[in-house]
Specification:
single chain, alpha+beta, Nuclear Transport Factor 2, Chain: A, four-stranded antiparallel beta sheet, two-stranded antiparallel sheet, 6 strands, 21% helix, Baseplate assembly protein
């Protein structure tokens, strides 16, 4: 069983890893406590907005990204159970506050059903400025 959802921009149906990438972006643009029933859903890194973009803060930010995507909910599943972060690679960090990084990890297509069998590695490019992030699958998957 694949996962499906609605594209937030077009309203069209999206499937599989496209839905996972959109979900990652959603998690990382939602503040902790913004969802009434899902109190553990969201990204505590939004509290870092306005801090200096230096090496220490970038490392802390990337750690919080990994934690936010793997944090367990009351049902025992990670916030995003279909993607397991393995590595975060910084791509760009500008003085203007814009940044980009690549999330490398395993795609777990049935993770939302509790089956964590990987179906290959995937890359998601996370880019943003301020509290607005976009997450899109990198064109080429990794072996």
């Amino acid at each position: 069983m694949s996962s499906a959802g609605m594209d937030r921009e077009t309203g069209r149906l999206i499937h599989n890893f496209d839905h996972v990438a959109q979900s990652i972006g959603d998690v990382l643009t939602t503040g902790i406590g913004q969802r009434a029933v899902r109190e553990w859903y969201g990204f505590p890194g939004l509290a870092m907005l306005g801090e200096n973009m230096n090496h220490d803060n970038l490392v802390k930010f990337f750690q919080i990204v990994a934690i936010a995507l793997s944090m367990r909910q009351k049902n025992g599943l990670p916030v995003e159970p279909r993607f397991r972060v393995i590595k975060i690679v910084p791509l760009e960090a500008l003085r203007s506050g814009e940044f980009a990084c690549r999330l490398e990890g395993e795609y777990l297509p049935r993770g939302h059903l509790g089956d964590f069998t990987p179906a290959g590695k995937r890359r998601v490019v996370l880019s943003g400025s301020g509290s607005r992030f976009t997450a899109v699958e990198e064109a080429e998957s990794i072996g």
